[in-house]
């Protein structure tokens, strides 16, 4: 912080022309460096605020006001700042209640905190429920398995890569993972199915809960339940949560797709992004005339009401005139003996670039 911000020599009020809105740097910890404020002292200062002043400040905050901004991962171009309002907090509380998360839980957070998944389903959920959070500098599967045992971790989250690495790490170390209760993992993609099924066996009693989301619409606009079957946990992405409408449509016509037919996932609800930061045209381009946000993701609706995320539309490959999902090919290759990781990418047909000879 000292490298980028001019801290005051006396007191704690920041006066830096490069950061005109910055007021204080508050430290959570035993030591308080010069120019910063200690969290405990800040909290103690609250006793001097009158009830009338507190009510006035509370009334000045609207649920629709911006509360934070997360940057996208940039899968469709340069990363964009996604601005969200306070309603996100309500949705986190609802998910925590649905998953019975409380102060008796311990969550291991090895995900990057600049990512909405880690911030929402890790940091925020622990602050809202009182659950204990253990934060690691990076993801190390062997270290994570040891921490699960020594810290009696009950909650882990992540993606199929994390789940696969944790499964293999436990097979190597064979530590005690009996404290595990639940884990939010984005399953449903064909490549994740065998990983999820194996984890259910190796990491028992862990019960994975599948979900689907993105920075623009929230980390979990669909989520499974604690009573889901193994098939639902590994081959679906959860049921739409309250406050959202979700459809799967034909990307060409916009018509609703029948059950189990692939299409684009479109979303409408009260907790979508307020905007892309300083990008009004990009924000408007994401919505159609009826207010549906177009995710650009491929998915389908199942007969049991669950949504299944398949992949990004832009990742579909055209092979011999047919659409081929690279994740489906990856899922098949992962079942081959000796294959640990695989990535399928497109490569142009050489006939497109060379003229055949008359004999050809």
Describe this structure in words.
With 360 residues, the protein is of the alpha/beta class. 27% of the residues lie in helices and 23% in strands. The strands form six sheets. Strands 6-5-7-8-9 form a five-stranded parallel sheet, sandwiched between helices. A four-stranded antiparallel sheet has the order 13-14-16-17, with no helix packed on it. Helix 4 links the parallel strand 5 and strand 6.
Helix tally? Answer: 10
Average pLDDT metric: 89
Pattern of helices and strands: EEHHEEHEHEHEHEHEEEHEEEEHEEEEH
Computed over alpha carbons, the radius of gyration is: 24 Å
Report, as a whole number of angstroms, the end-to-end distance. 67 Å
Helix content: 25-40%
Report the oligomer: single chain
- Quick one: how many beta strands? 19
Summarize this, please?
With 360 residues, this protein is an alpha/beta fold. The chain is built from ten helices and 19 strands. The strands form six sheets. Strands 6-5-7-8-9 form a five-stranded parallel sheet, with helices on both faces. It has a four-stranded antiparallel sheet with strand order 13-14-16-17, with no helix packed on it.
Pick out its properties:
360 residues; alpha/beta; five-stranded parallel β-sheet; four-stranded antiparallel β-sheet; 27% helix
């Amino acid at each position: 912080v000292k490298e980028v911000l001019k801290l005051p020599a006396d007191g704690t009020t920041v006066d830096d022309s490069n950061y005109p809105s910055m007021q204080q740097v508050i430290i959570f910890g035993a030591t308080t460096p010069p120019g910063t404020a200690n969290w405990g002292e800040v909290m103690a200062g609250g006793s001097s605020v009158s009830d009338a002043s507190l009510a006035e400040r509370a009334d000045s905050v609207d649920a629709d006001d911006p509360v934070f901004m997360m940057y996208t991962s940039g899968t469709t171009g340069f990363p964009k700042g996604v601005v969200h309002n306070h309603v996100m907090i309500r949705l986190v509380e609802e998910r925590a209640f649905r998953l019975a998360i409380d102060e008796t839980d311990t969550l291991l957070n090895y995900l990057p905190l600049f990512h909405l998944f880690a911030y929402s389903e890790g940091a925020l959920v622990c602050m809202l429920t009182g659950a204990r959070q253990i934060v690691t500098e990076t993801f190390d599967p062997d270290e994570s398995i040891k921490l699960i045992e020594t810290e009696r971790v009950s909650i882990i989250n992540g993606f199929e890569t994390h789940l696969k690495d944790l499964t293999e790490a436990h097979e190597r170390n064979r530590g005690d993972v009996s404290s595990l209760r639940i884990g939010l993992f984005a399953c449903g993609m064909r490549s994740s199915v065998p990983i999820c099924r194996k984890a259910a066996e190796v990491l028992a009693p862990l019960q994975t809960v599948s979900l689907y989301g993105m920075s623009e619409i929230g980390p979990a606009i669909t989520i499974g339940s604690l009573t889901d079957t193994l098939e639902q946990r590994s081959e679906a992405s959860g049921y739409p949560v309250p406050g959202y409408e979700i459809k799967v449509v034909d990307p060409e016509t916009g018509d609703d797709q029948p059950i189990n037919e692939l299409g684009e996932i479109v979303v409408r609800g009260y907790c979508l992004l307020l905007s892309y930061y300083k990008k009004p045209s990009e924000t408007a381009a994401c919505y159609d005339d009826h207010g549906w946000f177009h995710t650009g993701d491929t998915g389908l609706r199942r007969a049991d009401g669950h949504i299944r995320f398949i992949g990004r539309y832009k990742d579909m490959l055209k092979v011999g005139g047919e659409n081929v999902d690279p994740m489906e090919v990856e899922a098949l290759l992962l079942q081959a003996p000796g294959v640990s990781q695989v990535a399928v990418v497109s490569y142009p047909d050489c006939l497109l670039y060379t003229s055949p000879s008359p004999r050809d």
